[in-house]
Amino acid sequence: METIDVGNGCRHHWKGIPMKQQRCALFALVFFIVHIPSIAESSYDMGKAIYLENCASCHGMMGQGDGPLRPFLTKPPSDLTLLTKRNQGIFPHQRLWESIDGRGIGDSGPHGSRDMPIWGREFRAQSARESGGCISDANPYGVIPYGGLHRGHGVEWRVHQKISLLVDYIARIQSQ
User: Fold this and answer.
1) Which of 8, 41, 154, 156 is deepest in the core (most CB within 10 A)?
2) How far is CA 26 from the centre of its chain?
3) Nearest to 174 by CA among 98, 54, 89
């Protein structure tokens, strides 16, 4: 079999392979190397992933208030796809943010004084566990490497990111 030296010490066996097939193989290789990572990145929706992990059990896979826990809840969950319609055509960004966070509402139990979990507190606990659990009055943001909150580190920053991603996802599932 004839080998071809490509100049970097590698040798490839191309004898018997038509030039057209060689070009097709090279094109396919370049396409997958260049395009597959960008396709994978663009298809992952972190807001949707956070929603499915934390909200879908009550609000349902599509946000219509029909989750599998609905029969066990005192008050039925809201249909999240109708928030804009119920707010005179304007998406209630700030009100939704505050409702998800829940820490500004008086809390008297594991869910506070409301029917929905206080996700700000839950996300903070999750982030604290992920960062090593170093939260105290002296260090309220947990482990903050490389300069702090302004660089995207710290527990509270992660809480805000999760809530932002959820609000963005819910805005995108609004019915027309």
Assistant:
1) 154
2) 35
3) 89
Q: Please, what's the b/e burial string for 103-135 (b: 16 or more CB within 10 A of its CB; e: otherwise)?
A: eeeeeeeeebeeebbbbbbbbbebbbeebeeeb
Q: In the numeric block, which tokens belong to residue 137?
A: 């009055």
DSSP reduced 3-state for 1: coil
Secondary element (H or E) of residue 26: helix 19-43
pLDDT of residue 9 exceeding 60, the answer is no
Q: What is the pLDDT of residues 35-52, one digit of tens each?
A: 665 555 567 899 999 999
Check pLDDT > 90 for residue 19.
no
- Residue indicated by tokens 């396409």: 31
Cα separations in angstroms, 129 against 98, 120, 142: 23, 14, 9
**Cβ pair 73, 164 in contact under 8 A:** no
The pTM assigned to this predicted structure is 0.64
What type of residue is 51?
A: Y
**116-123, long-range: CB < 8 A, 24+ apart:** 116/58, 116/77, 119/54, 119/162, 119/163, 119/166, 120/159, 120/163, 122/54, 123/158, 123/159, 123/162, 123/163
- As a whole number of angstroms, the distance between CA 114 and CA 133 comes to 27
- pLDDT recorded at residue 35: 61
